[in-house]
Structure formats: structure tokens, C-alpha cells
Amino acid sequence: MPIKIPNNLPAVNILEKENIFTMDEDRAYAQDIRPLRILLLNLMPTKIVTETQLLRLLGNSPLQVEFDFIYTATYEPKNTPHEHLVKFYETFADVKDRKYDGMIITGAPVEKMPYEEVVYWNELCEIMDWSRKNVYSTLHICWGAQAALYHYYGIPKHDLPQKLFGVFPHTVNMKEKMLFRGFDEVFYVPHSRHTDIKKEDVEKVPQLSILSESEEAGVYAVIDKTYRHLFITGHAEYDVLTLKTEYDRDVAEGLPINIPVNYYPNDDPQKTPIVRWRSAANLLFSNWLNYYVYQGTPFDLNRLSEDELRGIDGDGI
């Protein structure tokens, strides 16, 4: 949360140079407070696991947040009980007349397929286009990030020679951006994917900036020029045993799979994995929720169409 300080206090300039978010008295008194409305488009097959991972991180905030969950109507999930979907989920048709402060589009295990061959591709494109006018800030994760970068900017994905699998070190390119406020010089993020986007493809698009990357894992975080659409290629939300579950599954099925990098002590799958990414994960999601949703979204969500191209306070957070 921001520090509220007296108007024109000399310390403001120093604090802002140190990337400490401040709010003067005039702005603080003018703020209206209400719960944030977040929409989760869950494309993962194990929806209960994914929603739990994300809610755990988004709940680590003093902000009051309300969630709606949707899945694609053009594909019936096979790994989530129908009763769970009926009780807790809606489809796009149910929510398209609503507006939201924030939205998360998850990854999906379809990355080896061409985008247009994914059964719900047309529906996903419709949802992404809808989000531009009905959601203040959207966070795209892993395949969801690749899909959005392809849909909006034509950035292709490329097959990797082998699965990128493990927990990799990352650095921040643009330290002045608030998404990585409080991060260490080097931080770790889990990745589990067969495809990648190339840095040179992103750099060709003037509307995009690369906020973070990894020598081993490539481009990690991308943001658009309005500072309202973020694309994250890794899985900061993963639990401690998520990579172990994937590894054990592939081993049991006789599939080619390497031991996940930087995960087991001494690369021994019989030992308990080491968590290297939890603090960075909590910071990532709390920073998004605070600086890219709460600090910018209008109190009256019906104003979203007016603010569509404004960005967050126009100041490049």
C-alpha cells in the first residue's frame, strides 16, 4: 500500500527515486474505496489446483477482492468435477455485460498445437478483445501470455528442442516499473513449457517493453504501452510440489523428461524440493493488484470505456 504523506514534503523526491510509492494528502482524501472485482479465466485442466494457487497469492493483500470464475463454453473440462463448475464457474456469455477491475488468463496444456487448432481459440480471442474495453488491467500467464501476444501483435511461438523445465534465475530490465518493486537483483521463477517467444520478435513491436528476462528461460515479463496488459511467461503461482507432480507423471508414463533444474537438492528426485520463488511470487501478484489495478481503476467501472487508452495515471507505472 502507498505511504500517505503531507503535501509537498521534501522527502517525497527521495522516496520516489528509491521506488517507494507515495500518495499526498489531497489524493488520499479524494480516493473512494470499494472491493476490487477480478475475473479469472481458468484454462488449466486441474482448475481447483490452479484457482487455489492464484487465490493464495491474491489473498495476500490488505485489499478486499471479489472473484468471478469462467471457463470456455466451447470446451468441456474433463479433469474438474462438473458439480464444481456448476457451483463456482460461469461462461463468457454470463459475464460479458459486466466490467472488472482486473482479469487473469491462465496457461493451458495446448502449447504444441497451432493456435487456430485449439478448439476454444475463437472464443478466447473474443474474450481477449472484450477485456480491452471491459477490464482495467489483464494479467496473462504462460500459454495465455503467448496466445495474447500472438493475437494482438502477431508474435509467434517457437518449439524448444526440449522442455524448459525447472526453476530459473531472472533479472529486471526496467527497475523503475512498479511490477518488480521490492524484488531482489536475481529472483527465481518456475517454468514448464515446450515453446518460447523470441526477444527479437517482442522488440520489433513498439507498443511493448520487456520488463524482465532470464538467460536460461528467455523473456519473462512484457508490458504494453498503456501499462494495463501484462504478459508473464512463467508460473510464479506454482506450489512447491507442482513440478514434482509433472515430473512423476511423465516418468510413470515413460515420457522423455529431464529432472527439473534448480528444484531438487543435488538433483535427487527422492529429496524434498527447495522453494526459491515464493517471496517473488507474492510480490509479483501483490504489485500487480496494487499498482496496476487498485491505483488506476476508476471507482465507477462504467467509466472504463472512457479510460480505455489512458493508461495508469499516464505516468508509466
TrEMBL record:
User: Which GO molecular function annotations are given, in alphabetical order?
Assistant: homoserine O-succinyltransferase activity
Does the record bear Ribonucleoprotein in its keywords? no
What Pfam families does UniProt report for this protein, alphabetically?
HTS
List the active-site residues.
C142, H235, E237
Q: Where along the sequence does the record put site: Important for acyl-CoA specificity?
A: E111
Q: What is the role of this chain?
A: Transfers an acetyl group from acetyl-CoA to L-homoserine, forming acetyl-L-homoserine.
NCBIfam families on file: metA
Q: State the name under which the record lists this protein.
A: Homoserine O-acetyltransferase
- Could you tell me which species this protein originates from? Pelosinus baikalensis
Designated gene of the protein: metA
